[in-house]
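Problem: given the chain below (310 residues), write out its structure.
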Amino acid sequence: MRNQHTLATAVTCSGVGLHSGQPATITLRPAPPDTGVVFINRKDDANVSLQASIEHCVPTELCTAIHGNGFQVKTIEHVLSALAGLEVDNVYIDITGSEIPVMDGSAAPFVRSIRSVGLISQDRKQPFLKIMAPIEVSEGSKRVRIEPSATPRITYSIHYDHPLINTQTYVHDCSSKAFETQIAEARTFGFLHEVQALWARGLGKGGTLDNTVVLSKDGIVNQSGLRFLNEFVRHKVLDLIGDFSLLGTSFIGHIIAERSGHALHTRLVQQILEQPEKWVLLNTEPLAEERQPSLLHLARLQPSVALQAS
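Solution.
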């Protein structure tokens, strides 16, 4: 078991929204133990807060979004991935618009910003949800499953009928170092004909070759090339880490995804909460009423086994 972490001081990230094309700015600020990730709407001094949790997740196209308390935040998966990947457990995210800045299409700019201010260890243990039996969701040839494992691991497979992708599989043994060096730099991607169709529908307005890998019929449009030969599947791992953080706590299990995406990722999180007999919440400390709502909910789902010694 490890202690919880937060930022040493605040840091701001600015850019444009991938889908809105509008200017977007967020400020990540330190938060007390057991806060989790909380978005705060600073538009018009509203100061309304919204927990990044699966209960607030809403169906959207091509991104992950949460809605509640009168406001919505879209395209949250990359910043959540950076926080989860670096084991930042507690943070306030001030936002003035409705979309997270896309930056360069990866989690790396968020990682660099977090590293620039540093992390501090907090005097509180971080709970872990340990998977005891398999849980799976599927839709046709797409599926994502989590099964028991001694350590957190992700195995992701994708298949596209394109010479630069075909079938790619990547195994990620979760650690902050592996995330920072092997996953964070992988950028979002799309096919040229799909990008043009999105633009025609008023989506992807902020998408450019500076923040999206665009594939033509037999290559890529970006002159800068790829950051990894298998950058595509690595980015899917990045997305999954961000989506899975909506569980509200760290996990111990092996996630196996095949041709999956945001919708199935978040469906698996929901299924985990609906099957509490298949996991235990490991924690060396009692859960107080001031703990983040998602953790309280997890504990109440398993009142007899939720508080386990590590």
